[in-house]
Amino acid sequence: MVGKFSDWIALVEASYNLEGNDSQWLKGLLGHVSKILNRGSEPVGWTFHCTPTTFKLGSFSEGTSKTLTYAARMSHALSTEKSLDLTYRTGVVIATASELVFPRLPDMHKMFFNLLKGRMEDLLVINCQSGMGSGVSIGMLLKQTSQVTVHERRRWPQAAAHIGAAVRLRGKIAQLSSIDSPEVEAILDSGGTLHHARSPAKDQDVRENLRAIVRRIERTRTHAGRADPDEALSNWEGLVNGRWSIVDRFDTDGRRFIVAIKNDPAHPDLRGLTPRERQVAEYVGLGCASKEIAYILGLSESSITNCTARVQSKLGIHSRAELVDFFAPNGFRRKLVEVILNGENLLITTNQLIKSYQLTELSESEREIATYLIAGSTNADIAQRRNSSEYTIANQVQSIFRKLSVRSRGELVAKLQNKKN
């Protein structure tokens, strides 16, 4: 049940409090989460880092009972890979275990029941992804089997976008120790007056837009602005202009300033995609809808739709469903590990990626191109790597598809993953 007067903006504000360590920060978040959820039990929070092949717990919320912390640690220690996939690699923001996990994995239900000696029937979990493999989870034990409400399903993805953005910010705290940090690209007061700007924020149109958005956020933070949670959350998106997080800073005289910090998700190995295209593709892979991605990145839904279409075009992927499969953390990418060696972004595999007998019909150059294709390189990127024309690469890609009896990159990946081949 969602409290009638729940202050969701207070939770957003607490997210951007960069003081203290992660455990102290989580404690502050949970104080607001308890009031919003209003389910009568104590929540526990933890940070995590999750890749397609690994999962690691981080810090737990300060002040949480030892019993809850123990239950959270043990449930993760006993979790199967499929359970971790469902919880962390599908993009689900809020769900109960009885909705998401137990029906699919009955053994996990049995483990949960035994771990808590039958005292609890269900678990509510909220996942706040940073978009870069890290995030925050909030768990709450429930005495009865429960379902997430319509309000919770609508509002928590928006609140989670801010918490995920805050996780990225906290990862660069050392860079933000000074107001002169290059990451701080604009400084404004609460009235929207701009006192300093650098990089894109120096553009006149961008500055005007930034001022307008800051004023809108400030109205959202008033008592009247908080009264309607849905409107308030809609008025304060996950990023401003797809680039900045808005954070309060106080000078030595106690005056409050608002700083716009560059905080969009950064990914290595663009493989021919622009940084924005890679960001969108990562969220698509998590199963996020265009509307949700638009809120997370602070862009229009049409921009996300167009960006998705460009990614599909560059990668030769025919549908959004195929794009989801290609970028899903629990899909083919499990076999790929991104590394940086001597300043160059590379993809390596955790096992033999392509069996030689699968590619016997291909020429040597086509085999190399096939490897680039399944790694996610665009035709333009492959052409640059091979010192060839994009037109030539496009013809060779079609030759590969024809020889292997596939129609697309997605079908190529699926065929090479098939153990029967």
Automatic annotation (TrEMBL):
Q: Give the highest taxon in the source lineage.
A: Bacteria
Short name of any one Pfam family annotated for the protein: GerE
Output the GO biological process annotations, alphabetical, semicolon-separated.
Answer: regulation of DNA-templated transcription
Domain HTH luxR-type: where?
266-331, 355-420
Keywords for the protein's UniProt record, in alphabetical order: DNA-binding, Transcription, Transcription regulation
Q: Which GO terms describe its molecular function?
A: DNA binding
The protein's matches in PROSITE patterns, at most eight in alphabetical order, are given as: HTH_LUXR_1, HTH_LUXR_2
**What is this protein called in UniProt?**
Regulatory protein, luxR family
Record organism: Nitrosomonas nitrosa
Taxonomic placement: Bacteria, Pseudomonadati, Pseudomonadota, Betaproteobacteria, Nitrosomonadales
